[in-house]
Amino acid sequence: MKSYKEIAKKYKPEEIAQSFVFPDTSGKKEAKLEAFQQFRQKADAKRTEKDKIIAQLLQLKFQIEDYINTEVFNKSQHFGFFLKEYIERLEKKNKEFASEIDIDPTELSQIINKHRAPTEKLIIRLEIHSNKSFPAIMWFKLIEKEKAYELIHDKEIRNRESKHVKQKSAFSL
Amino acid sequence: MLIKDIQTEEKLEAVIEPIEDNDYKTLKKNKAQYKWFNWDKYKGQEVYKLRLKDNATILGLMCIIDHTDPGTNAIEIELLEVGDDNVGDKKKLDNIAGCLIAFACRESYKRGHEGWVFLTPKTDLIPHYISHYGLAYTPPLGTKLEGVMVAQPIISQRLVRKYLD
């Protein structure tokens, strides 16, 4: 590593701050960690219930975004799983939440437990309920990911539908 | 996330992803861009690279440390370097460091640290980290105690919105 002084010969401090973070070479890491911990402790003491819920919701939102963007499919991370997380992180009961978005509690329960497919109206209502923090397109991509996996791996449907294909194309690419 | 072409003011889509072993070889060959730090030393640690979505060239690098102990419960930005072409008044692309710092804030939320991020500043840089990113310095300046720059949850949320949304 070259020293800060060398970098400072070439760039102004504001330019350096906009392009670098330097590793701690002071040998006083413990004292710095302590300074951070004290700062955090004081801030935590003032943290409200609302702050906690916001942090929980942001965590969930980023987890969903990353799950959508990864190629990995995880059976347990279905639409209903994330919807349940959304409701729980808001510290609401299913019945109360169902009433807030004007949906039958039984329907909500069936969607959470994967016994019924989520509808377009539901994901639109989730977007509105979350003040667009959890947009409909995000929920849609979650459903799409599940559908794509099922489409690729569902042998039963292939067996069933193959009976209806009387003549296959002459070409196989 | 978007970075800005300074000349055309065009917004360019960028991605941040973990560095791969091959990238270290590329960095070695391209010493002119990453000349200030020896990134080889950080092999095996959590290092991320920023690049344009349709181009493999690394535009910026960041090493983070995940402090999972309950007392700290935060992400530390250990080291960050923007490629030489995009540093100073002749830079072509803007917001590279901002995107990387915002990514650390997002990771902090994602890993359950509630948005808390910190880094060790050089003394001269403290006012600039404050004015440019909204970070706070603790303990208060002038106490002559060792301190760090902190992104509190509200600032982390703001940085994520500004640079990543």
From TrEMBL, chain A:
It comes from the Bacteria. InterPro entries: Cro/C1-type_HTH, Lambda_DNA-bd_dom_sf. Pfam families: HTH_3 (PF01381). Residues 83-127 form the HTH cro/C1-type domain. One of its GO terms (molecular function) is DNA binding. This is Helix-turn-helix protein. It comes from Chitinophaga niastensis.
UniProtKB/TrEMBL annotation, chain B:
This is N-acetyltransferase domain-containing protein. It comes from Chitinophaga niastensis.
